[in-house]
Amino acid sequence: MTYCVALRLDSGLVFLSDSRTNAGVDHVAVARKMSVFENPGERLMVFMTAGNLSISQSIKEIIGERVNAAGKTIWTADSMYEAAQIVGEAIRTVHDREAAALEKFGIDFNVSIIFGGQIKGERCRLFQIYSAGNFIESHNENTYFQIGESKYGKPILDRVITPSSSLDEAAKCALISMDSTLRSNVSVGLPLDMLLYENDTLAVTRFVTIGEKNQYFQMIRENWGKQLKSVFDGIADPVWNADPETTANVLSAQGSRSEPLVVMPPQELSTENPPAPLQTLAQGTNGRQH
Question: Kindly report the CA angle at 92 between 87 and 95, in degrees rounded to 5?
């Protein structure tokens, strides 16, 4: 599996991908998921993939050669939308060629793609392209796309990123998102590829491959966990069975009739002993209210 994330901001684009691929716990390898199509001064396009590696590699090769019905290639497309259509057509070509044979071996046609960049004369654009070759575009209401193991790194993106975020803020947020994923899912792994693209540069100006010894990423991995623990410790524990009018942080109000859904034991096993009274955080061990 993998994890890739891309963010579309007012100031440009941020792309981040891991490089782990595996076919079981005893067959883990490194395969880079990010590719860059660059004609400096004219266009810059970034292509990231998740899913079956053989499928995504085939798609990438076809993209460089495909000519659409209008005679356009990814290198001559007039817009990023037209370039995304060419990527979608490449996916369908590989599907038509490979899907039936893969199905005979119990293998799904599984690929997800993030594709974005800028062609001279238009704004930065970002797309998520699906296995059927159809796609959606990022707008201000959805400023980022994720593919692969996306759930672990999503909360920080939702809380932090807005279209006005700077490229460096977005890079920091994306790396924290990746760190959360690395900690929770063994199928995602280093090294990482990160590319920051500033509007209208039309070339790669900021790119880095991040390994275990990268100074900045080491700092994030160490400090993010500490900061989370500090925030967690600063949040009060819940108070049970108390009056919310006089006590703070009440989770269960005094006199509340909340009860669990209880499944009773068979009659022959029932002890018929009365349940022990609930002890609240507002009581001591002697049962007296504090």
Answer: 130
How many Å apart are CA 210 and CA 39, to the nearest integer? Answer: 25
Rounded CA Rg of the chain? 26
Confidence of residue 142 (pLDDT cuts 50, 70, 90): very high
DSSP string, 86-118: HHHHHHHHHHHHHHHHHHHTT----EEEEEEEE
Burial class (CB in 10 A: 0-12, 13-18, 19+), 42: middle
The mean pLDDT of 210-215, rounded to a whole number, is 97
Q: What is the DSSP letter of 279?
A: P
- Strand, helix or coil for residue 35: strand
Nearest CA among 105, 99, 128, 146 for reference residue 23: 105
d(C-alpha 252, C-alpha 261), whole Å = 17
Coil, strand or helix: which one is 244? coil
For the chain, the helix, strand and coil percentages under 3-state DSSP, each to the nearest 5: 30, 30, 45
Closest CA to 144 of 134, 133, 154, 132: 154
Measured CA to CA in angstroms, residue 24 lies from 31, 56, 60, 186, 228 at distances of 15, 19, 24, 11, 32
| Residue 257: predicted pLDDT | 83
**Six-digit token pair at 89?**
């057509």
The sign one gets for the Cα dihedral 39, 42, 46, 52 is negative
Digit-coded pLDDT (tens) for 243-259: 999 999 999 999 888 88
* 169 half-sphere exposure, CB direction, 13 A CA radius: 15
What tokens does 109 get? 């046609």
Check the CA dihedral 5-149-55-31 and report its sign: positive
β-pair partners for 289: 283
> Are 87 and 47 a contacting pair, CB within 8 Å?
yes
How many residues are listed for the chain in this entry?
290
How far is 208 from 196, CA to CA, in rounded Å?
9
